[in-house]
């Protein structure tokens, strides 16, 4: 797999299980890229939905992707603290065009006080039937929900106290 170069800007493409595009983030600056992990940053980037609607993100965000984990984490830096949006998804791939993954509907929103809420279980159930998610995917996703909850409770990975400070500072350095 290709590895994105630090400092370069790439798109993020989210797909549904059937291969159709779900959402595109127009621009994310690569802060760290290896074959296993990508950390990126963006601020006020254009997002295009599958139906063509567009909107702008409102705040700086640090994005965490891993090639072996079935989730990615968006860390949103707001005035009242750090909010985390965790997408249950396939591991990412990078193909020189974009960071790509399949969105599997389930999400965990984490608040600045590290409380969290599992979201979109009804959407997951509906899409599991519509797209025919195999049982193996369901089991993998349930295990990764548990892993994410452990990471939140243990303040691991992007939930570690200094993660945002380190990567947001690097993002600001790249923005010049």
TrEMBL record:
Keywords: Hydrolase, Magnesium, Metal-binding. One of its GO terms (molecular function) is magnesium ion binding. NCBIfam families: PRK13662.1. It comes from the Bacteria. Its cofactor is Mg(2+). The keyword Protease does not apply. The active site is at 23 (proton donor). It catalyses: a ribonucleoside 5'-triphosphate + H2O = a ribonucleoside 5'-diphosphate + phosphate + H(+); a ribonucleoside 5'-diphosphate + H2O = a ribonucleoside 5'-phosphate + phosphate + H(+). Has nucleoside phosphatase activity towards nucleoside triphosphates and nucleoside diphosphates. Belongs to the Ntdp family. Residues 18-156 form the DUF402 domain. This is Nucleoside triphosphate/diphosphate phosphatase. Mg(2+) 1 binds at residues 87, 103, 107. Mg(2+) 2 binds at residues 105, 107, 120, 123. HAMAP family: Ntdp. Its EC number is 3.6.1.15, 3.6.1.6.
């Amino acid at each position: 797999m290709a590895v994105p170069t630090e400092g370069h800007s790439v798109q993020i493409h989210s797909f549904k299980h059937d291969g159709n595009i779900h959402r595109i983030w127009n621009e994310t600056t690569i802060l760290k890229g290896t074959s296993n992990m990508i950390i990126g940053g963006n601020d006020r980037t254009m997002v295009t939905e599958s139906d063509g609607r567009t909107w702008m993100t409102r705040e700086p965000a640090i994005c965490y992707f891993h090639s072996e984990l079935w989730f990615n984490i968006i860390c949103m830096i707001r005035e009242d603290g750090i909010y985390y949006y965790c997408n249950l998804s396939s591991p990412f791939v990078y193909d020189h065009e974009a960071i790509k993954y399949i969105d599997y509907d389930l999400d965990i929103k984490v608040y600045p006080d590290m409380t969290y809420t599992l979201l979109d279980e009804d959407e997951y159930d509906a899409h599991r039937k519509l797209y025919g998610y195999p049982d193996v995917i369901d089991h993998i996703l349930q295990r990764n929900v548990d892993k994410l909850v452990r990471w939140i409770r243990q303040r691991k990975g992007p939930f570690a106290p200094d993660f945002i400070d380190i990567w947001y500072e690097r993002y600001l350095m790249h923005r010049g």
